[in-house]
Design a protein that fits this description.
- The structure is a single chain.
- By secondary structure, the protein is of the alpha/beta class.
- The protein has 2 domains: 62-207 and 399-454, Ribonuclease Z/Hydroxyacylglutathione hydrolase-like (Metallo-beta-lactamase, Chain A, 4-Layer Sandwich); 218-392, Rossmann fold (3-Layer(aba) Sandwich).
- The protein contains 16 helices and 19 strands.
- It has helices spanning 2-15, 23-51, 69-72, 75-81, 91-100, 102-105, 116-124, 211-227, 239-260, 272-283, 291-297, 337-345, 364-367, 389-392, 404-414, 430-438; strands spanning 62-63, 87-89, 125-127, 133-136, 141-147, 155-161, 164-168, 196-200, 232-236, 267-271, 308-311, 324-328, 352-356, 373-377, 380-383, 387-388, 418-422, 443-448, 451-454.
- The chain has an 8-stranded mixed beta sheet with strand order 4-5-6-7-8-17-18-19, covered by helices on one side. A 6-stranded parallel beta sheet has the order 11-10-12-9-13-16, sandwiched between helices.
């Protein structure tokens, strides 16, 4: 046994350095640049693997529900990676996408489209509209499309594969909001139960009340201000909400004029971005559901009313006049022309301000919290003395996202077996999940980084 131990010790002496042997340190120092380089290379490869998302499955086509930025911002990149990819969307959605894209607008005065992605997008688009059906008989599959409310051109997608029914709502509104048809009148065309409902959860935990009552309350405020020829500022976002406001206000005061001889109809000023959206509606009016389409067709277009005016940064002289309703964006006052406007309108205690839509940033969020001063920057502050509806009547909310009540109506009508929310965090959907479960839904989930988080 001692002999064996002696042999092992002798072998270790050959392998292990002696305490006074620094050759291994010299070797390490001499090879340090190479070792660092190899380590950095390995780390780079590892980081690249971590950064690189897993490969996407084969994409047969892409459906665009509507043209808002959060739904179309990646379209050019997607087409660049998949240049032959078919795109399913409405005509209005494609028009508005191109109209709002700043890089595309830079090419307005050029006869040819310079960027290949735009050319491919226009070339690849397959237009679908409300009521259209695309069948794949050999696959026992079809796609159907229905108005989704929310904005011009918005569509829902119903996919039926064998006996499995999948419905994607996009951003939607259940009830009609002038001039956009909600989903309510089209749900009876969809067979149920729906196996999988992918639905907008932006306002799923909020309760906005009756949209008709909300508009009626706002109109009473506006009529009072018009009677005294005061000015009103409506902060509205997105542009489709601004269009809803302008048509609703115009119709209300026009009826007062015709039925009661009302003589104090206010002028309605809207910014130029909204005007571009209206140009698309005028051009594609046959794809807008309801009275507005017939009015435009019959040459009684309300958008041509003398009471509608348009403004831009270089033309704000109208702020010196009285009895105006001004509609601009964004409602949180975080950028744009609305800052210049509220700087004037907000100083007069007789004027009225209503901020409608999403308010997430300063100074808008400070204002609805009760601040009496608007702080635009370190060097730009303005007193706020106008009557703010948001603080006087906080329950008055007008949004183009379906709330808890509208969600319940969708669940009752479609009888889904599984509901998956998008556009919201799990933390903010806890109450909505319980509410949906009470309505009889078996499974509720939320997409998170290409995975599904089961919420019940």
């Amino acid at each position: 046994e001692r002999a064996i131990r002696s042999e092992i010790a002798a072998e270790q002496e050959k392998i292990l350095p002696q305490y006074d042997d620094f050759n291994h340190i010299d070797d390490y120092i001499q090879n340090l640049p190479r070792l660092i380089s190899e380590a950095e290379k390995e780390k780079s490869v590892t980081d690249e693997k971590e950064r690189s998302p897993p490969p996407l499955p084969k994409i047969d086509a892409v459906f665009i529900s509507h043209s808002h930025f959060d739904h179309v911002s990646g379209l050019k990149k997607l087409i660049k990676l998949n240049p032959e990819l078919p795109i399913l969307c409405s005509r209005i959605t494609m028009d508005l996408f191109l109209l709002r894209d700043s890089n595309y607008l830079k090419q307005e005065k050029i006869d040819t489209i310079e960027q290949e992605e735009y050319f491919k997008i226009v070339e690849n688009v397959i237009y679908v509209e409300n009521g259209d059906k695309v069948e794949f008989k050999e696959k026992n599959c079809f796609l159907s499309f229905f108005h989704g409310g929310h904005m011009p051109g918005a569509l829902m997608l119903l996919a039926k594969v064998n006996d499995f029914r999948f419905l994607y709502t996009g951003d939607y509104t259940y009830y009609d909001i002038t001039p956009f048809a909600g989903t309510k009148r089209f749900l009876e065309q969809i067979s149920r139960p729906i196996d999988y409902l992918l639905i907008d959860g932006t306002s799923a935990q909020e309760e906005h009340g009756s949209i008709a009552d909300q508009f009626h309350s706002l109109l009473l405020f506006l009529e009072q201000k018009a009677e005294y020829e005061d000015n009103v500022l409506i902060g509205a976002d997105p542009s489709s909400l601004a269009i809803s406001f302008m048509l609703t206000f115009w119709r209300y005061f026009r009826k007062l004029q015709l039925r009661k001889g009302y003589t104090k109809r206010p002028n309605i000023y809207v910014d130029m971005m909204v005007r571009k959206n209206i140009q698309v509606i005028n051009h594609r009016y046959e794809y807008i559901y309801g009275p507005i389409s017939r009015l435009i067709r019959d040459k009684a277009n309300p958008f041509n009313s003398i009471k509608f005016r348009w403004f831009e940064r270089s033309d704000l002289e109208f702020l010196r006049t009285k009895n105006n309703i001004i509609i601009s964006h964004p409602p949180d006052l975080s950028y744009g022309l609305i800052r210049n406007i509220i700087n004037v309108i907000g100083r007069n205690p007789h004027n009225l301000v209503f901020l409608a839509g999403a308010i997430h940033e300063k100074p808008g969020i400070d204002l609805i919290s009760g601040e009496s001063e608007i702080v635009f920057s370190e060097t730009w502050k303005a007193p706020f003395r106008a009557f703010l509806i948001n603080t006087f009547m906080p329950q008055l909310k007008i949004k183009l996202h379906a709330d808890k009540i509208q969600l319940a109506e969708m669940i009752k009508a479609l009888e889904p077996k599984e509901v998956c929310f998008f556009h919201q965090s799990a933390r903010r959907l806890t109450q909505a999940v319980e509410y949906v479960k009470e309505l009889g839904v078996e499974k509720v989930s939320l997409p998170i980084k290409r995975k599904l988080l089961i919420l019940n």
